[in-house]
Amino acid sequence: MADPYIKALHIIFIVTWFAGLFYIVRLFIYQVEASEKPEPDKSILGAQLKLMSNRLWFIITWPSAILTLFFGSWMIISNPAMLSLSFMQIKLSFVLLLYVYHFACHKLYKQLQNDNIKYTSTQLRIFNEIATIILISVVFLIVLKNELNWIKGTIGFVLVAVLLMLGIRIYKRIRNQKEGKK
Prior knowledge:
Elements: H1 4-35, H2 41-78, H3 86-113, H4 121-144, H5 150-181
Helix pairs in contact: 1-2, 1-3, 1-4, 2-3, 3-4, 4-5
Pfam families: UPF0093 (PF03653)
Keywords: Cell membrane, Heme, Iron, Membrane, Metal-binding, Oxidoreductase, Transmembrane, Transmembrane helix
GO molecular function: metal ion binding; protoporphyrinogen oxidase activity
């Protein structure tokens, strides 16, 4: 059993890391949308969003990712038998995917800081849901552990992904209708 203080710190930094990952992509979306506005809104919003992204990324998100890894590693080093559990191996695979996502966000961050816009706001909204899917997967995996019914889990995972994509489409349709009325 992991030291409860180390476990608590691990959970705290997971929460702050996810908060940073969720919000940074929202800031990317706003930055892309600001780039489409006329001057002076484009410059003013662009500068402010770059500043907000920089602070969020380097003051909250990166430190949280590092501390999550540190405390998670500490728990595994303290109890290496956890690595033999199948749910832990799967969880660590999702964690690896989350770090890949984090590095992809870092690449996007650097591009947008240099005004290099390669994606639409809709593409970024879809990209933003990757962290949500990973979070849902890891939480269910950790809570259910070996009791996980793989068929129900797979169906639930696909259903959540479909609902997220449907939500993005509905949001885009509503937003386009509102902009059409202006």
